Amino acid sequence: MMLSDVMEDYLKAIYQLQRGDDERVKTSAIAEELDVTSPTVTSMLEKLEDRSLIDREKYRGVTLTEEGETVALEVVRHHRLLEAYLTEHLDYDWSEVHEEADRLEHHISENFEARVAAALDEPEVDPHGSPIPSPDLEPPNTAVGNPISECGEGDTVIVKEVADHDPEILSYLADHGLEPGVELEVLEVAPFGMVTASARGSDTQVSLPEDVARHIRVALPAEAE
Amino acid sequence: MMLSDVMEDYLKAIYQLQRGDDERVKTSAIAEELDVTSPTVTSMLEKLEDRSLIDREKYRGVTLTEEGETVALEVVRHHRLLEAYLTEHLDYDWSEVHEEADRLEHHISENFEARVAAALDEPEVDPHGSPIPSPDLEPPNTAVGNPISECGEGDTVIVKEVADHDPEILSYLADHGLEPGVELEVLEVAPFGMVTASARGSDTQVSLPEDVARHIRVALPAEAE
DNA sequence: AGGCAAATTTAGCCCTATCTAACCCTAAAT
DNA sequence: ATTTAGGGTTAGATAGGGCTAAATTTGCCT
After folding, report:
1. Which residues in chain A have their CB less than 8 angstroms from residue B91's CB?
2. Mean pLDDT across the stretch B203-223?
3. Which residue among A86, A218, B11, B162 is buried most deeply as judged by most CB within 10 Å?
C-alpha cells in the first residue's frame, strides 16, 4: 500500500490519541494534534476509511483497523529508533530529537531501519523511555509503569518514561534531574493534578502541572526490571 | 526561502546537468533526469523563474542564478554527506547509498547536517569520489581528475571518481576492482567511446560503454594528491 | 529561401491536501 | 420532550504538481 506522508501522520496521530484512553478518537482531537482544521480532518478520514485503515462512525470518531494500526506502529518504530540513534550516535540531546525524527520517519527505507536497529543493538525503548515497537509490528500492550499522578504522597519511585515532546519542557525537566532511570520522591499530588517531586541527589524540587505530569510514568523500585 | 522538495529536485537536476557541459540546460534534459513530461518541466521552470532561482530564455533553456546554485549546492552537500555517512557508519555499500540519500537529502536539518559532517570529520569527497560542497556553499571548481576517455592507451592512472548512480552498474564495477583509489591500466579507447581497462592486481579486464565511461574520472599517479 | 522535424510552450484537465463559510447532528440541560 | 451549545460534516475555493493534446518556435536541410 502506497501511503502519503500526510496519511501516515494521521494514522500515527490516531494511534497516539487512542493510547490516551483507548476510546474512539474524535475529529477535533486529531485536528489539534496535527494543527489543521476539522473539515480537513473529516475529508482525510473519509480517504482513510476508503482504504480500510480506520473504522469510522460519522459524528462519533474513529478507531484504527488492524491494518491501520500496523502502519501507525511502523511509523512509531521509525520515529523512536531515530530518536535513539540521534542521541546515541549523533550527539543529540534527548530534548531535541523529536522534531528531527518527525521529519525523517517517513523517508527511511526498511534497509535503513534495520541498520539503525542493528547499530543500536535492537533497543526496546527510546531516549524518553517510550517502548519501540518490535520489527514484526505486533501491537504492544507493554505500557511501562504508571502515571505519576497515581502515586501516593511520600512514594519513592523510578522514572520510566517522559513522553513529552516539547524541547523546552524536556530541558527544564532534565535540569531538575527528572529523566528516565532517575529515582524520585513524590512529595505532593494535588487534587487538580499538579505533582510535586524531588529527584534523588538533588535537593531542589519540581512542580508539574497536570498536562506535564500526564506524560510521566513511574514504577516502584520493587517492580523495576 | 521556503522551497518544496520538488523544487529542490529541479534545482539539483539543473545543477548536475549544467556541470555536464556548462551550457544552458534544456527542458527535455530535465524532463528525462526527473522522469516527468516536458510540459511539467516548463511550468515548474516558470515558478523557479518567478522566484529568481533560474534565468530563463523561452525555448532556449535555463541556467541557475547565484541563489539557485546555492540551493542546489546545499542539496548536493546533504546528498553526499549522507552517502558518506551511510557507508562509514551504517554499513551500506557504496553501490546502494544513492537512493537512500536521494530521499533523505530534503528532510535533514542544518543541525543534522553539521553533526553528520562532524562525525565524518568534515569529509571532502563522498564514497564515489565526488566532491562534497563546503559548508559555506561556495561554488567549487574542483573537478578532480579527467574523464577516462581522454586517456591514451597504455596509460596507468588512479581512479578518482565513479559518479554513476545505478547500483547494478556500481556493483559490477566494484566486482571488477574498479573503485575510487584503485590503480588502473587503460588498454583501449575505441573511437565510439568504449574504454577497456584492467585494475591493478586483477588480471580480468572491464569494457565500459561510453555512457558508463563518461562517469569515471581518473588522474595520473603523478598528479595524485 | 522554404520546408520540416524535433523540441518547447500553451491550454485544459486531474488529484491531493488544505482552507473558510455554512449547515447539521449529538448530547447535555432544563 | 425541547432547546441549544458546540463539535462534525458538507460545499466550494485555492495552490501545488502532474498529465495529454494541441499550438508554436527553432534550427537544420535542401
Report:
1. 115, 118-119
2. 86
3. A218
